[in-house]
Structure formats: C-alpha cells, structure tokens
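Moderator note: this is an archived Q&A kept for reference. The question asked for a predicted structure of one protein chain; the sequence and the answer are reproduced below.
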Amino acid sequence: MFCLGEFVDNQYTIEGTSLHDRVHTVGQGNREETWQVRAIWLRSEQYRLIGKADLVEVSAGQWSPVEYKRGKKGEFDNDELQVCAQALCLEEMTGERIEVGYIYYARSHQRQLVELTDELRGETIQTIAAVVALFETGRMPQAVESKRCRGCSLFEQCLPQVEGKMLRYREVI
C-alpha cells in the first residue's frame, strides 16, 4: 500500500474507517481518575515515525497508548507491534518509560493489555528498521501468500498466489 501508493477499500477497511472516524474525534477529558486525549499525533525522530494515536491515557502518572481495532483479537502480533511503536513515540515525546498499552477490539468490546516487554520492543524496532529499509531502497517486498491475505483489500493487486507459483516455477527451471 505504501510502496506502490495503491489502496482499495473492502468491507474491513470501510468498517475500520467508520470506527476510526468516531475514535478520531479530537478531544481530551477525564474519565474518573484517567486523563484521556483522542486523535493525538505522535512522532519519533529516533525511529523516523509519525502517526496518529487513537487514544492516549494518563493514569497515576503512567502514559498508555490505546489502539482501536474493528474486529476481535487475531492470531497475529501486528496489533501489539503498532501499540509498541506508539509507546516508543510517546517515550521520546514525554521522556517517560511506557510500561503498558492497550488494544480495544470493537467487535468483542474487550480491552487487551499489551505489556511492553524488552522482547516486544526489540521486535518492534526490527520491524521499523525493515520498513525504513524498504522505503530507502524503493524495493517491494516479495509477495508471500498466507492466511492474512484472505481479508486484504489489495489481494487482487498483489496476487501473492501467482507470485508463489512463479517462484516455484523458477526453482524448477
């Protein structure tokens, strides 16, 4: 999507956009003992990141990013990586160490705790470095068909099943 500048909506992207339209209503306020700010821009010079957090909360002096997702908890860790990347930005912006973040899944109305362990931080930093390298080289990553492809709005443009067959064909000849 970002390398080629292509985007196509599908059911999932439309539902996600609708959720984020509600979440991204700029504002701040208190909810009991927790200060909340919605639709706040985050930035990290160190990791070359910029983006908008759905919600940031401060409770008892502890900052926490909260990411909203349209579905339910999936089997992949990309949601946790996103929350960790937001925490890395918040740490740089506030000078405070962020220990936890949250993911709110709209379908189940459940909030999942994300512990920002050294392992998760390392994986997030490696992922950021890999994405930066893609932008710097301008090279497209190899399409690899997986279960994630089923709901992707760019499936028809990417054609990972064709790419996989081409790789196997090249190995034969």
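Archived answer notes: The chain has two domains: 11-140, 142-173.
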